[in-house]
Design goal:
Beta-Lactamase; 7 helices; PAS domain S-box protein; elongated; 254 residues; 5-stranded antiparallel sheet; GAF; single chain; two-stranded antiparallel sheet
Length: 254
């Protein structure tokens, strides 16, 4: 009776190393703080998705698995998804630095999306890494906004020093608000002491026709005096209207 062959030590060591490597990769896949999708490089079918991406987008593992990339919620019906896959098959790499996506709940997020093609045991696989950059983009936008407002303020200070008349000053301030402050339109009004209406005396920007028949008052007894402008003047304070289209006080001007 023959004895079974003794495993070659090198073969055993290689198997252990392979299992250890696979275990390490699986731990990284499961605990990564970026979303990871694994796709079949020939069919674009999703073969695996990590927990972070499931939590981020709100779709279950089953809703991802076996679907083509463009059949899943946030990527569904996007021509870009098919174009991206075609580019991946050609070049083996794609990158989107600012990809807008919608979660299952309808929330909008901004994502950095990077895909690479590689071979695993003779099979071509696509790995897509998705990083949520929503907070970073919001911070960048806030910084840009502050920079714009400071630039506009600087221009207004210069106008105060250099303008020779009130009319010129008012126009330059409106211009600075639009050209440096990022406003669509800016206007300045003065109060008519008899009618208590705020009469536009200077404006600049795209929508100055809006002022043609505008009715703004400082009289608290009329709806036209209870909007942002009338309230700010009457109460001698700033009034920030974050959503003009939905703010109830803005109804008379919609």
């Amino acid at each position: 009776m023959e004895s079974p062959p003794t495993p070659h030590p090198y073969s055993t060591d290689a198997s252990k190393a392979l299992r250890a490597s696979e275990s390490r990769y699986r731990r990284l896949f499961e605990t990564a703080q970026d979303g990871i999708l694994l796709l079949n490089a020939d069919t674009a079918q999703i073969e695996d998705v990590n927990p972070y991406l499931i939590d981020l987008l709100g779709y279950s593992h089953a809703e991802f698995l076996g679907k083509k990339l463009w059949e899943v919620g946030p990527f569904a019906d996007r021509a870009e998804s098919k174009e991206m896959f075609a580019e991946l098959q050609t070049t083996g790499y794609v990158r989107y630095e600012d990809l807008p996506l919608k979660t299952k709940t309808g929330a909008q997020i901004e994502a950095e999306f990077v895909c690479n093609t590689y071979e695993s045991e003779g099979i071509k696989v696509i790995q897509c890494n998705l990083r949520d950059i929503t907070e970073r983009k919001a911070t960048e936008a806030k910084s840009r906004r502050h920079a714009q407002l400071y630039a506009a303020l600087g221009q207004c200070n210069q106008a105060i020093v250099h303008c020779a008349s009130e009319d010129e000053l008012f126009l330059q301030i409106c211009r600075a608000a639009v050209q440096f402050g990022g406003m669509k339109m800016a206007w300045i009004g003065l109060i008519d002491s008899e009618t208590l209406r705020v009469q536009p005396v200077a404006s600049f920007g795209d929508a100055t026709e809006y002022l043609k028949d505008i009715n703004v008052s400082v009289d608290a007894d009329t709806p036209f005096g209870c909007g942002p402008t009338g309230t700010a003047i009457r109460e001698d304070r700033l009034y920030w209207c974050q959503d003009f289209l939905d703010d109830p006080v803005a109804v008379p001007w919609r």
